[in-house]
Design a protein that fits this description.
This protein is an alpha+beta fold and about 170 residues long. Helix content is about 15%, strand content about 25%. The protein is globular, with a radius of gyration of 18 Å. Zinc ion binds near residues 18, 38 and 41. Zinc ion binds near residues 40 and 43.
């Protein structure tokens, strides 16, 4: 039996697609069996969070079911992974992206705990290992899925696209 609604708590929602956050102030006005849709991009459902969460501009979000299979992919995931949406849908997220450590995802699944700031790497479609920070959120509804937010880690040595070229100093006459 789903246990929705936490007394004295305002639920936070985030859209996995466009990452817009919302506070559901209408939650007490009427209960619906369906999760609310995003008012910004029209995406079909919002993910409920225990606390407000601020994704980075280049964070990509993936929603999975309780078997880690990808249900939805947000903006930024393609840029991050190189995989188009169709290549990830329905696949085991850990296998598809070859997460360097499945533990954060497993802990979130098994214990329903958030895992924030996990330093992992993924393998992009092109076969490159890419360091990311993963934030994993368990769903609070009966479906028991996960929201996995992946943010590229910057400023590390193995970044394969150095940006120094455009900033070469010039002007020594
Ligand atoms: Zn949205």
């Amino acid at each position: 039996m789903p246990c929705r609604g936490y007394p004295g708590r305002v639920p936070y929602y985030i859209c996995p697609r466009c990452k817009e956050r919302s506070v559901d102030i209408d939650a007490h006005e009427g209960f619906s069996t369906q999760a609310p849709a995003c008012r910004h991009c029209g995406f079909g459902f919002l993910f409920e969070l225990l606390d407000d969460y601020y994704p980075a501009p280049d964070t990509g979000m993936v929603v999975t079911d309780q078997d880690r299979r990808v249900l939805a992919i947000g903006r930024g995931v393609f840029e991050l992974t190189g995989f188009p949406e169709a290549d990830l849908m329905g696949r085991d997220l850990v296998e598809a992206l070859q997460l360097s450590d499945p533990k954060p995802v497993e802990l979130a699944r098994e214990w329903g705990v958030r895992r924030l700031g996990e330093r992992l790497s993924i393998r992009t479609r092109g076969g490159h290992e890419k360091p990311v920070v993963a934030d994993v959120f368990p769903a609070y509804d009966a479906d028991g899925g996960l929201l996995v937010a992946l943010t590229p880690r910057r400023g590390i040595a193995d970044n394969e696209t150095p940006e120094s070229d455009s900033k070469t100093e010039s002007g020594s006459g």
